[in-house]
Amino acid sequence: LQMAGFHRKTRLAVCTLNNWALDFTGNLERIIKTCCESHTLGARLRLGPELEIPGYGCADHFFERDTEIHSWQCLRKITETSKQWPDLLVVTGMPVRFRGIVYNCLVALQNGFLLLIRPKLALCDDDVYRESRWFAAWSEKATTHEMRIDPDYGFEQDCVPFGDGVLESLDGVSIGFEICEELWTAQSSHIDLALRGVDIVCNGSGSHHILGKSNKRINQLVLGGSGKVGGVYLYSNHRGCDGDRVYYDGMSTVAHNGRLLVQIPQFDIEDTCLHSAIVDLRETQSFRSRIASMRNEAAGRKTLPFIQFNGRIVDQRISPLDKLPSEIIPIQHSPTEELCEGPPAWLWHYLRRSKMGGFFVPLSGGQDSAAVATMVRLMAEKVTSSVKKADENGTDDPSYYLNGERVGTNADELTNKILHTVYMASEHSSMETRKCADDLAGEIKSSHSSILIDTAVSALLGIFKLAQGFIPTFASSDNRETMALQNVQARIRMVLSYLFAQLSLVTKGRPGGLLVLGSANVDESLVGYVTKYDCSSADLNPIGSICKSDLRKFLNLAAEKYRIPSLKAIVESTPTAELRPLVDGKVAQTDEEEIGLTYDELSVIGSLRKPGLMGPYAMFEALLSIWSGKYTLDEIEHKVKLFYRRYAINRHKATVSTPAYHAEAYSCDDHRNDHRPFLYPDFSLQFDAISAKVAELKEQHKKID
């Protein structure tokens, strides 16, 4: 027998689920699967992600009563099934309507009984989040009410506590809650919970991937928070694509007193993953007892509503000889390494859930389309590697299947089957870009071909001539003619891309069609250096929120780490649209020359615009410091004005931009991330202020000289 009071060990489980908005059947299966696994491992608590029952990304479907009702139906099934795991406390997530208002809630249940519905105290409306559009934040802190349960839902109880409360087990273990954004607020809920003596904090989260975000989330917030106030911190997050532009990047975690005990991988593809750890709750008491200032703060706090439940968290089956887990080092990828992992994983989940047969990429031989094709290749390597590991371990997962067929372990074969690339040459294309495209296609093993588009271009111009009696030429001094000639080539490539995507599998005797992948980077989208409805118009764009400088780093890393040497030549090549005539067989048109800004400059300017939130004048002042010594005052003035002129003229293109993987806060996606007008004035006041500042600074320099 364990000596009373000395034994305070328990096993706790966190999980990562690839749930899907409105996939109630699949979501329920994944939730119950992880509950069963938790029970088998001997865990006393299983924590799931935020809104895991309907899926976090339901968006305006949260307005629909259907979403609430189906969530309750699933909750009833989980509650009924929980009788099979009588010792397991299950924490799940769903929307709940209380007194006519819908809240984003965690729901705690055990052995067929709902224990507490805990609404979210702080909603997230930053970046692409829009939670206050659908939910209200719970404002009655440290308060609970009895909520009547609709008898039509079929529960065995009539009511359940609703509000900001803490659960307390028969053996005196207290469990508190915070939900996602509460961890990021200035006064995080777990601080208050710790000061009120709570042993375990459960955070069900819906946090998506942004380059470098995981470092702050795990190291600064989860580990930093538990290291500051002590206690066990459980963090469960979604992982995968639930039908939108974002990728949830998992990293579900168990931390104790600032030490990391469990971390679920960030970019694995499996639909479910569950890890557990044994913790000794006595260590929390020891940790907190030795911080005198914390004791004094805690003594003055009012108590929270503690809700007793008929269950035990301490597990007497755990022997004193059972070792506690050692502290592990957080696995942290660099932003460039994350580009090798996040977009490929997102592409795979989107492909298999869309039930399409693969991807089509118009491969130009340039850096952007090369990056997209390479991401598909890395996707194939990620999937086949996972399948190989599963075969070795004798396991299986729905993520290993594409349209009902289990994927093999050969990345070359998978890439050749699902990635179709075409080099669409015109009379303005160079031998250099064709060689780059052919070499890359050969190395990544895509199903590749080359075509000429000149016949189609001539046909369209012939139609225009019949109607108007006029043919535009590149020799004209009227820029409208040269732009029309360039745009018709670009748009023909879009039409051909969809033709190939629809019919390529027909020629191979395979069912289905292909998803067209776009390849416009965020820098080009910001200044409108794309043709509206050209190859930037596609079904998906894995690089649409990524700047050129980051893409170059990605290509260099992929060339070395994944042995794709042709990428080196592509990185070293000069970016060009190749829409103007060659001069002596060589490219005479370059992207940066036509834009008037380098891609590195665009990266700096784009970050100052958002997330820096600077208008023209504030940006000019910031660049005076950043580019001091590199450019003159006149040059900085010119670059700022040039950027904003191009941005204002071309902002309308962002309204029809292809749905892009959301990797950075500076994305100009008009749909959710970057809400701005698409018809702009001429910035006359702002530009006059910049000019006046330049004149003032020049005058100051004259006096100093």
TrEMBL record:
Residues 10-281 form the CN hydrolase domain. One of its GO terms (molecular function) is ATP binding. GO terms for cellular component: cytoplasm. It is an enzyme of class 6 (ligase). It comes from the Eukaryota. Pathway: Cofactor biosynthesis; NAD(+) biosynthesis; NAD(+) from deamido-NAD(+) (L-Gln route): step 1/1. Keywords: ATP-binding, Ligase, NAD, Nucleotide-binding. Its EC number is 6.3.5.1. In the C-terminal section; belongs to the NAD synthetase family. This is Glutamine-dependent NAD(+) synthetase. It comes from Pristionchus fissidentatus.
